[in-house]
Write a structure and sequence with these properties.
This protein has 285 residues and is an all-alpha fold. It contains 17 helices and no strands. α9 packs across α10.
């Protein structure tokens, strides 16, 4: 097939453009002269977004001991980059959900579980910016939407074949197109000029060893596996937990400090965060 990921993304840029509020906040975050109060004032131009951010800040996603009742306080406590990443996460679902090429509620539910799992793993691993891993996990499959939009027949065929043959979707995509949805998603986020740490983790989440930052890509890889294998069914006995770990490369298990003995606690934490955030983040799906 004579098509490249770059071609699909360039043809989709008008369809899926970042909202002005994110672009504005992102520029302010990158400006060292910009204060938390100024960023909060910019966010205040979107009351619905402001309300969502405050609900997230006061949810089990963070678990802060005292209530955060102003956006300025949220920016100060969470950090400017963390707030920027939450702005992206809270608007990403709305950017794509109008396309409707698949069951978007199911798509975003899996994506949110992956994002939450990735963030929790990042915290456990001592990653510098857990919110960036949340965004990478949330957007890890966004390339599927681009493929289904620009190459609908190929997109549908590979999905059906993957389900019928119990084969990984990315493997079939590579055999048909020469690349997969992870590459397309990473290219879209790169074209959006998101931080390299975010788009690279998306691009290599099926091949973490190929990423410059192997840990970030490995975290999203594990978050994806757990979202598929652990959160979509009850897996409360030790044997089931062991099977989940066996599905992941031992090197990645060690790198991400994944421990079968604590997976049930991990699952409960992610499910609690999902229940707290899904109403806000998936409302448009």
């Amino acid at each position: 097939m004579n098509v490249r990921p770059e071609d699909l993304v360039k043809g989709s840029m008008r369809l899926v453009t970042l909202p002005e509020i994110f672009i504005r906040v992102s520029r302010m975050v990158d400006d060292p002269r910009c204060s938390a109060a100024a960023i909060a004032q910019a966010l205040g131009s979107d009351p619905a977004l402001t309300a969502r951010l405050l609900r997230i800040a006061n949810s089990p996603f963070y678990g802060f001991p005292s209530r955060i009742d102003t956006v300025t306080r949220a920016v100060t406590v969470i950090g400017t980059r963390g707030v920027r990443d939450l702005v992206l996460a809270s608007t990403a679902v709305r950017i794509f959900s109008h396309i409707g090429v698949v069951d978007m509620r199911s798509f975003w539910s899996h994506s949110l579980l992956c994002g939450l799992g990735s963030r929790l793993l990042a915290v456990r691993c001592g990653a510098v910016e857990p919110e960036a891993l949340f965004v990478s996990g949330l957007l890890h499959d966004i390339g599927q939407i681009i493929i289904l939009t620009k190459l609908p027949e190929v997109g549908r065929e590979t999905r059906v074949r993957a389900e019928d043959c119990a084969l990984p979707l990315y493997s079939l995509e590579r055999s048909v197109m020469g690349f997969d949805h992870a590459t397309v998603g990473g290219e879209l986020l790169r074209q959006w000029m998101l931080p390299k740490a975010i788009w690279e983790a998306v691009k290599y989440h099926h091949d973490p060893a190929e990423a410059a930052n192997t840990l970030d890509a490995s975290i999203v890889h594990v978050g994806d596996v757990l979202a598929h294998r652990l959160f979509n069914r009850r897996a409360e006995d030790g044997a089931a937990m062991e099977v989940v770990c066996e599905d992941i490369d031992p090197t990645i298990v060690e790198l991400t400090r994944l421990d079968a003995s604590s997976l049930e606690t991990f699952r409960q934490d992610v499910v609690a965060q999902f229940e707290a955030l899904s109403e806000d983040l998936l409302a448009a799906a």
